[in-house]
Design goal:
Layout (H helix, E strand, L loop, with lengths): L13 E10 L2 E11 L4 E5 L6 H9 L5 E9 L2 E2 L5 H7 L1 E4 L6 E5 H15 L7 H14 L5 H4 L1 E2 L5 H15 L3 E5 L7 H14 L5 E5 L13 E6 L2 E6 L1 H10 L2 H12 L1
Parallel strand pairs: 3-10, 3-11, 6-9, 9-10
Antiparallel strand pairs: 1-2, 1-4, 4-5, 7-8, 11-12
Bound molecules: adenosine-5'-diphosphate (ADP) and magnesium ion.
């Protein structure tokens, strides 16, 4: 696998090029470009229904979306040709906006199976049960996760906040290269938001990257992004730094929507 180009620079961790995606015959993404390098945190903001979850889900391979044009590359590889399972093994992680309940599957077993699968694809040996439990319990503790919740079925009967914590526990234990976090702040009170943000910040590293999807800038007070992008009309219409999120907080999204419509009408 060609991991580096001739001059020795690595390809971007994630490269989305001119992506067009339809859902149920409606075009949701229309020419979206996004480049994410190792070490970077990108926030994707936008009004409700602008396609933020669509983007996150298409990167991870959630079924139900039709990619009609464009490319998604992960370390230079064509992600769209890979099953969701292979994408996870390659190091892509998605925290769902609405985490799914898995009745009959215990949280601890679920995580262990996932960790084993990922280690296997990296050519690493399975962790001994005792070792895995030690890792899991240490991570759970830092996330303020009650040990009882590891015994329960995945997300079953969890509160909204507990489900979000569970997503971040998965992130911590699976240790992917790219974390796509979809509205991980929604439904969290201020204390839980801090715990979850600490979990995400602990994941930050020079060889990792985060795509943080959020409608509100609140979580960006805790997780400082390197780049902020605004998704409107199926494309990134504005990119900037942290200050762009603050501007959105005070001005809303309409001024950008108007600017975009104005520009395309010219
Ligand atoms: P966001 O996350 O930015 O709020 P989404 O990506 O969830 O936006 O949704 C983008 C658009 O796609 C919305 O108009 C939404 O109603 C539509 N959409 C998403 N999923 C479906 C679906 N399964 N069937 C029909 N429309 C859908
Ligand atoms: Mg969404």
């Amino acid at each position: 696998m060609a991991k580096s180009s001739k001059n020795g620079t690595k390809p971007a961790l994630l490269e989305v090029r001119n992506l067009y995606v339809s859902v149920a015959e409606n075009e949701i993404l229309a020419g979206l470009d996004l480049t994410v390098h190792e070490g970077e945190v990108h926030a994707i903001m936008g009004p409700n229904g602008s396609g933020k979850s669509t983007l996150a889900n298409v990167i991870a391979g959630k079924p139900g979306y039709k990619v009609t044009a464009g490319e998604v590359l992960f370390e230079g590889r064509n992600v769209l040709a890979m099953t969701p399972d292979l994408r996870a093994r390659a190091g892509i992680f998605l925290a769902l906006q609405y985490p799914i309940e898995l009745p009959g599957i215990r949280n601890r077993e679920f995580l262990r199976t996932a960790v084993d699968a990922i280690r296997e694809s990296r050519g690493e040996e399975k962790l001994a049960i005792r070792e895995f439990n030690k890792l899991l319990e240490a991570k759970a503790k830092t996330l303020g996760f009650d040990a009882d919740m590891l015994k329960r079925n995945v997300n079953e009967g969890f509160s909204g906040g507990e489900k979000k914590r569970n997503e971040v526990l998965q992130l911590a234990v699976l240790d992917p290269k790219l974390a796509v976090l979809d509205e991980t702040d929604s439904g969290l009170d201020i204390d839980a938001l801090k715990v979850v943000s600490d979990g995400v910040n602990a994941f930050r590293a020079p060889d990792k990257a985060i795509v943080l999807v959020t409608h509100y800038q609140r979580i960006l007070n805790y997780i400082t992004p390197d780049f902020v992008h605004v998704l409107i009309g199926g494309r990134i219409v504005r990119s900037g730094g942290r200050e762009l999120a603050l501007e959105l907080e005070s001005r809303g999204y309409d001024w950008l929507r108007e600017e975009t419509v104005g520009a395309s009408a010219e």
